[in-house]
């Protein structure tokens, strides 16, 4: 099979990112197979007994992930899924059967609407309505004033495609109360729920406790390989296990993903608050750097960030920005930005990128960020 230009560009990007001495975060997909396997082999024994038998259809280490996650979220039970897409489709399908209403109220930028090829309707037989299209979570008034009944309100915390934005704690409580007034259940898309605790000033059990069910991911913020958990009442989780089997998610063995999930819970979860705090430093320095660089317009969104992830917007095309980003990594050993996209909601001529601040980013000072911005801008053509 011939190597395409996109494959060549991807190899170029991955090589540049891997060789960079300074990065704000290192994604799990940035590393080679050898590196990932070596890390898992070296560290897995610190979180699970490796002399035990491998999992078979969800027992053993997979069941341990379920128990650990249910405890962390303060939920009765949890079920491990190979993907969050499957976990949420199953959850919403189960709630539709229990409420007798197949209508799901959610944001048009939420993952099921923006990234799942219409699966809620075509696979689950569900229908969606949108309380708001503004780039934020819906308000209590918008939920209360929806003109038709809905069985489930789904809230993505944080709302990634709007800039990883969150409501205030009081706003979140009011939205949940408005849904309950409508006799609806509340499901949290908590793919990135782990890093929401500093913004809300609440622990995971209190946040998750507002909802009837919640899904969390292990690879987005916890550096896991893959996998997700759906947590909620024991009766719902048992039903979800049946639908998981029907959807093809009853995987024979999942110990690599499960072990990496346990490592993420043990090592990355306690560090997320420090990432969130430092993301505010990085975001402010980025804004300062672009303001003094001669770029005609730039925006950090939100400012300050609500989590350890946020967006940066610049008035250039994606090809120009992608090339400047990879050249900076190749020529200076510093990766400031990764991929850029035009984005469906942005004005013409604007591009955005997502910035994540993790363990490597803690070493960056504000001056380091401003210097990197200047080096990046110098490569814009």
What does this structure look like?
The protein is α/β, with parallel strands linked by helices and 381 residues long. The chain folds into two domains: 5-37 and 271-377, Aspartate Aminotransferase, domain 1 (Alpha-Beta Complex); 55-252, Aspartate Aminotransferase, domain 2 (3-Layer(aba) Sandwich), CATH 3.40.640.10. It is built from 15 helices and twelve strands. Helix 1 (5-19) packs across helix 14 (318-332), helix 4 (84-99) crosses helix 11 (234-246) and helix 13 (272-291) crosses helix 15. The mean pLDDT is 95.
Q: Could you provide a short overview of the structure?
A:
The chain is of the alpha/beta class.
Chain-wise SSE layout:
Layout: H1 5-19, E1 22-23, H2 33-43, H3 61-73, E2 77-81, H4 84-99, E3 103-105, H5 111-114, H6 119-122, E4 127-129, H7 140-144, E5 152-156, H8 169-181, E6 185-190, H9 197-200, H10 204-208, E7 213-217, E8 228-232, H11 234-246, H12 255-268, H13 272-291, E9 299-301, E10 309-314, H14 318-332, E11 334-335, E12 351-356, H15 366-377
Parallel strand pairs: 1-11, 3-4, 3-5, 5-6, 6-7
Antiparallel strand pairs: 2-8, 7-8, 9-10, 10-12
Helix pairs in contact: 1-14, 3-12, 4-11, 13-15
């Amino acid at each position: 099979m011939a190597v395409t230009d996109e494959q060549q560009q991807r190899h170029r990007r991955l090589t540049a990112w891997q060789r960079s001495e300074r990065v704000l975060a290192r994604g799990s997909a940035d590393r080679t197979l050898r590196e990932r396997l070596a890390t898992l082999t070296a560290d897995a024994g610190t979180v699970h007994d490796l002399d035990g038998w491998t999992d078979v259809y969800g027992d053993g280490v997979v069941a341990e992930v379920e128990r650990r996650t249910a405890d962390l979220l303060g939920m009765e039970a949890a079920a491990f899924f190979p993907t969050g897409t499957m976990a949420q489709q199953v959850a919403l399908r189960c709630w539709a059967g229990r409420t007798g209403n197949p209508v799901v109220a959610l944001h048009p930028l939420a993952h099921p609407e923006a990234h799942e090829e219409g699966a809620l309707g075509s696979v689950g037989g569900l229908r969606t309505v949108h309380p708001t299209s503004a780039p934020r979570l819906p308000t209590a008034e918008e939920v209360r004033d929806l003109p038709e009944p809905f069985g489930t309100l789904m809230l993505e915390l944080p709302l990634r495609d709007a800039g990883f934005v969150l409501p205030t704690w009081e706003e979140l409580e009011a939205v949940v109360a408005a849904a309950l007034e409508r006799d609806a259940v509340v499901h949290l898309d908590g793919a990135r729920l782990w890093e929401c605790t500093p913004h809300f000033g609440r622990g995971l059990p209190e946040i998750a406790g507002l909802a009837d069910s919640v899904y969390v991911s292990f690879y987005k913020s916890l550096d896991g390989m893959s996998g997700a958990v759906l947590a909620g009442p024991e009766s719902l989780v048992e039903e979800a296990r049946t639908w998981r089997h029907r959807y093809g998610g009853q995987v024979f063995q999942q110990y690599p993903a499960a072990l990496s999930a346990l490592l993420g819970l043990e090592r990355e979860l306690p560090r997320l608050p420090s990432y969130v705090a430092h993301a505010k430093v990085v975001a402010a320095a980025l804004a300062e750097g672009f303001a003094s660089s001669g770029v005609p317009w730039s925006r950090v969104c939100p400012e300050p960030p609500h989590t350890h992830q946020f967006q940066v917007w610049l008035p250039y095309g994606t090809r120009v920005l992608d090339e400047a980003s990879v050249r900076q990594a190749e020529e200076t050993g510093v990766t400031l930005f990764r991929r850029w996209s035009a984005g469906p909601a942005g004005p013409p001529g604007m591009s955005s990128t997502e910035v994540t601040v993790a363990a490597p980013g803690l070493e960056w000072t504000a001056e380091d960020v401003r210097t990197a911005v200047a080096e990046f801008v110098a490569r814009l053509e």
